[in-house]
Amino acid sequence: MRTDTIVAIATAVSDSGIGIIRISGNDAITIADRVYRAKKRQKKLAEVKSHTIHYGFIYDEEEMIDEVMVAVMRSPNTYTKEDTVEIDCHGGILVMNQILNVLLKNGCRLAEPGEFTKRAFLNGRIDLSRAEAVMDIIHSKNEFALRSSMRQLAGAVSDRVRSLRKDILFEIAFIESALDDPEHISLEGYQASLEEKVLKIQVELKKLIDSAENGKMLKDGINTVIVGKPNAGKSSLLNLLVGEERAIVTSVAGTTRDVLEESIKLHGIGLNIIDTAGIRNTSDEVEKIGVDRARKYAATADLILYVVDASRELDENDDEIQSMISDKKVIVLLNKTDLEQVVSEDEILQKLPQVSVIRTSTKENIGIDLFEETLKKMFFGGKIAVNDELYITNKRHKEALLEAYESMGMVLESLAQNMPEDFYSIDLMSAYASLGRILGEEVGEDLVNEIFSKFCMGK
Description:
By secondary structure, the protein is an alpha/beta fold. It is built from 15 helices and 13 strands. Strands 3-4-5-6-2-1-7 form a 7-stranded mixed beta sheet. The protein has a 6-stranded mixed beta sheet with strand order 9-10-8-11-12-13, sandwiched between helices.
């Protein structure tokens, strides 16, 4: 690990009111002293108490650059567990860059992306799952993703993983001890006991793995595609959900020929909505391309919103749509209920018995509240209790959990075949190592560098 002193601008580089420049390393305070001057005679920064703030100026030799507040924090009680100085200056691009340059000239090195958090990890302040939660917090797209990331930063994932590893390690240690000292430690009846414990651990692992689907949607949003015949009200629905006129709405069928994409929040739930061309048989080449794209997006969607014009009879185009979405999560919006109805809920449920049907009118804003409640029930059991439930939101974590689950399955197979005890130990150790990768205890330097390279500068 490099131990030189690093510096970076920790706030967005813009003409904002305040900017923060962060310094971390063994010489952080010494270098800050070279460029900082107090307004009145006082101690050097090297002589002040930790976690104190001081008013003064930053100088480049004899030229004053800016009026600042300087926070001095001594190791190990800092973000990186190293001596840290944060300079609060004016937020202009020019002044921040000038302060950064004078610090580089006086002995700092420009930090790599994510290097402050990387040092926090390498110095043992946080494990890798918590470090990744820092980036998730920065990029949270909705309230629930933020709350979930905060729980992970507080240790929700790492605590659960450490508990599972502790249980696994106990069994490994018991087997190894019994094999080394069979006279004093008996394995008689141990197979039944181990099987019960392995099954219990598998249940815990499966619960975490199953949470990853909802976790991904909490983090990234639910990929939602609006489908239906032309002029069913798809674009009107998009405009209503977005809260502005994003799609062109006319009485002419086939107005939407390409896809429109919008990201919205409904009571904190993120929806990545795609409005598609109306699906119908057409000889228009441009419209045909739009219909093909609608089919493509629908095939990979997390959720289909099937908009049906309840004032028009169902036809062969509806048959095609219903066949296309029969194996998907679908909410049917029986739209235009302000007009005379010719399509009933029962008629929809005969072809799509697994779907939820909601009577709506995008013109009169009817049924949208019920749609939101249905959405929560479909994906989150009626509520999103992030404070109570742990969601796996990281693909790397899910893969490690799957590997651990498979290894525990191998233990069960060995037990079923009455294999020697050292076979159990091998697969238990594999599960232990897989879970360790979530914490960063079993990962290589290349993976660590790749993870932190995705961080922003100054974090």
